[in-house]
Design brief:
With 785 residues, this protein is an alpha/beta fold. It is built from 29 helices and 27 strands. This is UvrABC system protein A. Keywords: ATP-binding, Cytoplasm, DNA damage, DNA excision, DNA repair, DNA-binding, Excision nuclease, Nucleotide-binding, Repeat.
C-alpha cells in the first residue's frame, strides 16, 4: 500500500505571493502574505502601504472579478488598469472597506445605506395598523401618483375596442419636501442684480458667466431681452425668467432645454448634499437659501399616510428617529410569528451597529454627515453577518475616529472576520491594533521616494526587536508636560444644544493647545463645529476632499505653481502662461495630461505614457527653458523637501517650509491631489492656513494617517503654532495629543443620548490624577499610571 500524500495540492495556496510590486513609490517589493490571518501593514505616511494593499492586491482582485463579466456589462463598471507588479498569485475576492464618504445624495440615510430601512418598511407593511399599502408606501423616495385614460385593445377578440384604465401608486414621499425632510426659501436678490440686464452680468450665481452657456441659455432663448434690466421685466418675463417649466428651444442650431432660474438652481445646487459642494458654491447656498425642517412632515420625509400606520404606538418615522440602542429595545418588544425571520434579521443588523460602536446614530441620519470613520464602520455592517468565507477584507485605518475605549470592540470585530476563514488586511498605525496582528508587514524606511521598500515581515515580537522605525516607536509614550501654558483669554460657548448636546456652557481658552476628547458620538464635533467654527478669526482644517480634477496637484492647490511659472518666465524673458500644461505650454499630443487615453468602445480605456512629451505634459519649446539648470518638468517632479533646497528664498520657500513643517516633505509638487489620503489632505490645508498669526485653528483628528514617529512631529508643529501667538483647538482621540495638551475638554460620559455634557475641563495632569471618565482611565493606562 502506498503512503498517503502529506497534503492536498489545493493546500499549497496558503499565502498571497507578491513579486516585483512597483505601484507608485514601491521599489519592486517581494512579500508573502498569509491567508486566513489578520495582517497589519505599518510604516510612515507615504511609505507605500496603501500602494501595496489597495493599489496592488485589492485593485488586481477587483480587476480580475470585473473581467468575468460580459464585455457589455463591463462598459458600465469602473475601468481598472492592471497594477505595476510582476506576479500576484493566490489572491481571493477583495472587499474594500475604506474611509471614503458615503456619497453626496441628499436622500441617502444610515437606514437606506445599510438596508435596515428597507426591512423596516416590510415590517410596517405587514404589522402596521391601519394598513396603508405595500413596503413602498413607507418609502420617502416613492411619490404617490395616480392616473387614468383610454387605451385601445390591439389584439384578441376585443381588438379595436377602447377601454378606460386607471392606476395608482401609493408611496411614502412627503409631497411638500419631496422626501428631503427640509424645505428652502430662496432670497432672489442673491441670485441676480435687478438693476442690471443679463448682458451686463445680472446673474450673480457661481458659474453663471455672461459669455458662458448657463447665461446664454437665457439670453438666446427668445423669451427674454438680454439688454433689458431685470427691474423692468413684465410679469410674463419674470415668470419666464424665474419659473418657466422645461421647454425645448433652439440655440445656435442646437436643441436645448430652457428652464427657469429657480428650478435650475434648485436641481443643480440646492438638492445636493451641502457638504459635497465646492466651498465657493457652498458659501453662495448659505447666503441665498434658508433651510428649515419641512412643516408638513416635521422633517421625517414621509407623508401623513406612512406616519399614520403604527406598531405598538410607534410609526416608521418614530423608529427611524430613535437612537439605535433604543431601536434595538423596541424591536425586542415586537413579537409576531408571521415575520419572525424578518425580525431576526433586523435585530441582528441593529445589534451589529451597537457592537461596532455606532449605537448612538439614528437611521434617519443623513449619510453625508457621517465622518470618515463612521462611514467606514457603517459599511462594515453588511459584512458582519455575511456567510461568505475565504474573502479578503481590506481596511483603511478602521480605528479612525475611535476613542481608545472603542478600539477593543473594533479589534474583536476584525478577529471575528478572520476566525470565519477570511483574510483580513489592515492599514493601521495604532499600537492597539498592531498588537493583535498575526502578521505584520512594515514598509519604509521613509516616505515617497525614500520609502517603498520592505523593512520587516513577521510577527509582532519580531517587529519590536527589528530596529525599524515602527519597531522602535511601538512602545513609545508621550509624557504629560511638567508645566502648561496659561490662557490669554477665553471664547465663551453658552447654551450649546446641537444634536445631543444638553445646553452646554464651556469656555475655550485662548493662547494654548486645547484638546477636545470623548468617545465617538459624545458630541465633540457638535460642540466645536457647531459653536466655534464660523466665528471671525477661526480657521477650520478638516479632512474633507479637496475639489479638483486630474490636473490638480499640490503645486496648483498651494499656489506654488504660479510662483514657479513666474520665476521661469522672468529667468527666460517669456510669458508665464508658457509654463502651464493647461495653456500655451501643453504638449500637442496629450493636451498636457502626460498620457494618451485610448477608448476601446465597450472595452476598458487604455492610458499610455505620451511618447512625444514622455509623460511631462509639456511641449519641447517649454522644456528647453531652464531655471538654475532645471526645466519645469524636473522642478514639478521634486518632492517638497527637494524643492525647498532648490528655492532657497522668497514666497515659494516659505510655502515649501510649511509643507515640510506639517510632515509633507515627501509629496511631489506635481502629483495628483486625488492620490492624497485624508490625513495628507488635512495637513495640506493646514500648510496653507498657517501663514498668519493670532488665529484660532480648529483641527479635526490631525493624527489620522500619521505614523507613531510622526505624531511627535505633529505635536512640535502644534507647539510652534501656539508659540507664534495662535490658539489651537484639536478634536482628538490619540492619547499622546491628550498628554501634550495645555487644557482638556472631555465630552461624555457616553455616546448619543448618554453623552452631550462636559464631564471634565482642566490640564491633563488633573485628568490623570483624579478624573473618573473613560478618557481618564485610558490616559492613565497609556501613561502606565
Amino acid at each position: 500500500m502506498s503512503a498517503a500524500p502529506e497534503g492536498h495540492v489545493a493546500d499549497s495556496h496558503e499565502v498571497i505571493r507578491v513579486r516585483g510590486a512597483r505601484e507608485n513609490n514601491l521599489t519592486g517589493v517581494d512579500v508573502d502574505i498569509p491567508k486566513r490571518r489578520l495582517t497589519v501593514f505599518t510604516g510612515v505616511s507615504g511609505s507605500g502601504k496603501s500602494s501595496l494593499v489597495f493599489g496592488t492586491i485589492a485593485a488586481e482582485s477587483r480587476r480580475l472579478i470585473n473581467e468575468t463579466y460580459p464585455t457589455f456589462v463591463q462598459q458600465f463598471m469602473p475601468q481598472l488598469g492592471r497594477p505595476e507588479v510582476d506576479a500576484l498569485e493566490n489572491i481571493s475576492p477583495a472587499i474594500i472597506v475604506d474611509q471614503e464618504r458615503m456619497g453626496a445624495n441628499a436622500r441617502s440615510t444610515v437606514g437606506t445605506a445599510t438596508d435596515v430601512h428597507a426591512m423596516l418598511r416590510i415590517l410596517f407593511s405587514r404589522l402596521g395598523h391601519p394598513f396603508v399599502g405595500s413596503p413602498q408606501a413607507f418609502s420617502f423616495n416613492v411619490p404617490s401618483v395616480s392616473g387614468s385614460g383610454a387605451v385601445t385593445v390591439a389584439v384578441g377578440a376585443d381588438a379595436g375596442r377602447e377601454e378606460r384604465r386607471s392606476f395608482q401608486i401609493t408611496g411614502g414621499m412627503c409631497p411638500r419636501c419631496e422626501g428631503l425632510g427640509e424645505v428652502s426659501d430662496i432670497d432672489l436678490d442673491e441670485l441676480f442684480d435687478r438693476s442690471k440686464s443679463l448682458a451686463e452680468g445680472a446673474i450673480t450665481i457661481p458659474g453663471y458667466n455672461v459669455d458662458g452657456w448657463m447665461v446664454r441659455g437665457f439670453t438666446e432663448s427668445g423669451f427674454l431681452d438680454p439688454d433689458k434690466p431685470i427691474a423692468r421685466y413684465t410679469e410674463q418675463e419674470v415668470q419666464d425668467f424665474l419659473y418657466r417649466e422645461p421647454t425645448k428651444v433652439r440655440i445656435q442650431s442646437m436643441n436645448m432645454t430652457y428652464e427657469g432660474l429657480v428650478p435650475k438652481v434648485t436641481k443643480s445646487m440646492l438638492q445636493k448634499d451641502r457638504d459635497s459642494l465646492q466651498p465657493h458654491v457652498r458659501a453662495f447656498v448659505d447666503r441665498a437659501v434658508k433651510f428649515m425642517p419641512c412643516p408638513e412632515c416635521d422633517g421625517t420625509r414621509l407623508n401623513a399616510g406612512a406616519r399614520s400606520s403604527l406598531i405598538g404606538g410607534v410609526s416608521i418615522a418614530d423608529a427611524a428617529a430613535m437612537q439605535i440602542t433604543d431601536l434595538a429595545g423596541w424591536l425586542d418588544e415586537v413579537d409576531d410569528p408571521s415575520v419572525a425571520p424578518l425580525l431576526a434579521g433586523l435585530r441582528h443588523t441593529v445589534r451589529s451597529f451597537i457592537d461596532i460602536g455606532l449605537g448612538y446614530l439614528s437611521l434617519d441620519r443623513s449619510s453625508g454627515t457621517l465622518s470618515g470613520g463612521e462611514a467606514q464602520r457603517t459599511k462594515m455592517i453588511r459584512h458582519l453577518g455575511s456567510s461568505l468565507t475565504d474573502v479578503t477584507y481590506v481596511f483603511d485605518e478602521p480605528t479612525a475616529g475611535l476613542h481608545p475605549h472603542d478600539i477593543q470592540r473594533m479589534n474583536a470585530l476584525l478577529r471575528g472576520l478572520r476566525d470565519k476563514g477570511n483574510t483580513v488586511l489592515v492599514v493601521e498605525h495604532k499600537p492597539e491594533v498592531i498588537a493583535i496582528a498575526d502578521h505584520v508587514i512594515d514598509l519604509g524606511p521613509g516616505a515617497g521616494r525614500h520609502g517603498g521598500r520592505l523593512e520587516f515581515s513577521g510577527d509582532v515580537a519580531g517587529l519590536r526587536a527589528s530596529g525599524t522605525l515602527t519597531g522602535r516607536h511601538l512602545d513609545h509614550r508621550a509624557a504629560v508636560k511638567p508645566s502648561v501654558r496659561s490662557a490669554t483669554g477665553t471664547v465663551e460657548i453658552r447654551g450649546a444644544s446641537q444634536h445631543n448636546l444638553r445646553d452646554v456652557d464651556v469656555d475655550i481658552p485662548l493662547g494654548v493647545l486645547t484638546v477636545v476628547t470623548g468617545v465617538a458620538g459624545s458630541g465633540k464635533s457638535s460642540l466645536i463645529h457647531g459653536n466655534l467654527s464660523g466665528r471671525d478669526g477661526v480657521v477650520v482644517v478638516d479632512q474633507s476632499p479637496i475639489k479638483g480634477n486630474r490636473r490638480s496637484s499640490p503645486a496648483t492647490y498651494t499656489g506654488l505653481l504660479d510662483t514657479i511659472r513666474s520665476a521661469f518666465a522672468k529667468a527666460n524673458g517669456v510669458k508665464p502662461a508658457l509654463f502651464s500644461a493647461n495653456s500655451q505650454g501643453a504638449c500637442p499630443a496629450c493636451s498636457g495630461l502626460g498620457v494618451i487615453v485610448t477608448k476601446l468602445g465597450i472595452s476598458a480605456s487604455v492610458e499610455t505614457v505620451c511618447d512625444l512629451c514622455e509623460g511631462t505634459g509639456f511641449n519641447d519649446e517649454v522644456l528647453a527653458y531652464t531655471l538654475d539648470g532645471r526645466n519645469i518638468a524636473e522642478v514639478l517632479a521634486f518632492s517638497a523637501a527637494e524643492a525647498a533646497d532648490f528655492f532657497t528664498r522668497g514666497p515659494a520657500h516659505a510655502t515649501l517650509a510649511r509643507l515640510i513643517d506639517v510632515g509633507l516633505g515627501y509629496i511631489t509638487l506635481g502629483q495628483a491631489l486625488n492620490t492624497l489620503s485624508g490625513g495628507e489632505r488635512q495637513r495640506l490645508k493646514l500648510a496653507i492656513s498657517m501663514a498668519g498669526s493670532g488665529a484660532i485653528y480648529v483641527l479635526d483628528e490631525p493624527t489620522t494617517g500619521l505614523h507613531l514617529a510622526d505624531v511627535d512631529n505633529l505635536l512640535a508643529l502644534l507647539d510652534r503654532l501656539v508659540d507664534a501667538g495662535n490658539s489651537v483647538v484639536v478634536i482628538e482621540h490619540h492619547q499622546a495629543v491628550m498628554a501634550h495638551a495645555d487644557w482638556i475638554i472631555d465630552v461624555g460620559p457616553g455616546a448619543g443620548r448618554e453623552g452631550g455634557t462636559v464631564v471634565f475641563t482642566g490640564p491633563p495632569s488633573d485628568l490623570v490624577a483624579s478624573g473618573d471618565t473613560l478618557t481618564a482611565q485610558h490616559l492613565r493606562q497609556y501613561l502606565g499610571r
